[in-house]
Amino acid sequence: MNRIYLDHNATTPVDSAVLDAMLPFFSRDFGNASSIHTFGQRARSGVETAREQVAGLLNARPQEIVFTSGGTESDNHAIFGVVNAGSGALKHLITTSIEHEAVLNTCQALEKQGLAVTYLPVDGNGLLNLDDLRKAIRAETLLITVMHANNELGTLQPLAEIGRIAAEADVYFHTDAVQSAGKLAIDVESLQLDLLSLSGHKLYAPKGIGALFIKGGTRLRQFLYGGHHQRGFRPGTENVAAIVGLGKAAELAHAARTSDAQRISTLRDKLEHGLLSRIPDSRANAADAPRTPNTCNITFPGIEGEALIIALDLKGLACSTGAACSSGAVEPSHVLTAIGLPASEARASIRFSLGRHTTEAEIVAALEIVPAAVAQLRQLSPTYRTESANTVK
Ligand code: PLP
After folding, report:
1. Which helix (H) or strand (E) segment is 378 a member of?
2. Could you tell me the pLDDT band of residue 393, with boundaries at 50, 70 and 90?
3. Which residue has the higher pLDDT, 116 or 384?
4. Is 12 a residue whose pLDDT tops 80?
5. Is 287 in contact with 272 (CB distance < 8 Å)?
6. Residues 164, 217: Cα–Cα separation, whole Å
7. What distance in angstroms lies between residue 178's CA and the mean position of ligand 1's atoms?
């Protein structure tokens, strides 16, 4: 069976050019980047080239890039780092209700330490309201942390406006750009960002590597204590091969971003329109918002998302629900409930996320596989039969 992978927001395959760039650093160039001999200097050169490549993707300066273990660490580092560097007088953070857990749970941990956090609501497309943001800022606000692209919907927040508001209020501005870095142009300078998180495995580099952009002059307490690696910001012997892979991935994304976005959004639209026209009562979520080019999220009333994922997997198609399985119960996604979906519809929603290697033939196949699976599950669904019987004219 030729498997179709439409779950690129969960993770991406390592690009073959990325793997090629990494391989020498496992063998010939295996040195410790802190060593002064030639082995070490080759590794150092790989790390510093990667720093330049990641900086180039963001219009940052290389010295403003710190390599981390991924998006979760970058988010934690940014938020705890700013709070811990503060004098303690500024005790208020602002975020949104649809952030990834890496931000939400960090904010919740800080609440337990006595900080106040405002979780801004979003509208039906997942967009925050800029007036709500302005009103939420207080004299003691230290940081605004708002994600760029939402992982479940693809919705893009208006970073330029948020950056302007944060700068006017003299408040630090962090964005979790894990789902947008490499897909869309990001200019940390024009967006007036102080901190930005990204993750390798969402942009065709390996898992376990990421980066944090820290604008020069930002007061940030280090997160880990150890040696002097990465100017003390992130001690620990650098994961040279993974860093080199992230650098290469950033370079590739920089070069291909615009053409990839055009091609992928055309395929995404074909998939979305095709599913909506073939599957009665289906609805696309956040379709009216500015979105990442690769993501669509569709509600198929009458089905359980988990059951559909399994049915599709049996047919060779991989996609996902936003639902998280906790303590045996399937919780509806906090993102989908935040945009106003009732729990039953949130559970009936599926995310399709396309990628660099997605082909038109795969989308054509998905347009056969998904409608058949939804129809089959709906036949078994007492609730869908009742709902649809009530609406039959
Ligand atoms: N932030 C967002 C928006 C994400 O989608 C993810 C991963 O899904 C993360 C953070 C966490 O990144 P990582 O898996 O690299 O820790």
Report:
1. helix 360-379
2. very low
3. 116
4. yes
5. yes
6. 18
7. 6
pLDDT tens per residue, range 344-380? 999 999 999 999 999 999 999 999 999 999 999 999 8
Whether residue 329 has pLDDT greater than 50: yes
Position 387 scores a pLDDT of 54
How close is the Cα of 74 to the center of ligand 1, in Å?
A: 9
Residues belonging to the active site: 325
Distances (CA, A) of 95 to 155, 215, 256: 15, 20, 31
Nearest to 65 by CA among 260, 256, 204, 200: 200
Extents of the domains making up the chain: 4-10+257-392, 16-253
Ligand 1 pocket: which of 146, 157, 178 to mutate (most atoms <8 Å of CB)? 178
Give the Cα separation of 19 and 360 in Å (integer): 26
CATH topology match: 4-10+257-392 vs 16-253: no
Q: Looking at domain 16-253, does it have CATH number 3.40.640.10?
A: yes
Q: Which atom of ligand 1 is nearest to the CA of 75?
A: 10
7: number of Cβ within 10 Å: 18
Closest to 306 measured CA to CA, from 275, 366, 348:
348
Minimal-distance CA residue to ligand 1 atom 9: 71
pLDDT tier at 27 (50, 70, 90 boundaries)?
Answer: very high
**What is the average pLDDT score of the chain?**
95
Q: Which atom of ligand 1 is nearest to the CA of 11?
A: 8
Ligand 1 center–CA 368 separation, angstroms:
31
State the pLDDT confidence band at 328, using cuts at 50, 70 and 90.
Answer: low
CATH of domain 4-10+257-392: 3.90.1150.10
CB-based contacts of 239: which residues, under 8 Å, 6+ apart? 67, 69, 208, 209
Q: How far is 132 from 171, CA to CA, in rounded Å?
A: 16
Residues 6+ apart with CB under 8 A from 241: 22, 23, 25, 26
d(CA 310, CA 296): 19
Residue nearest to atom 13 of ligand 1 (CA): 71
107, 118 contact by CB (below 8 A): no
pLDDT recorded at residue 216 = 96
User: Tens digit of pLDDT for each residue in 40-61?
Assistant: 999 999 999 999 999 999 999 9
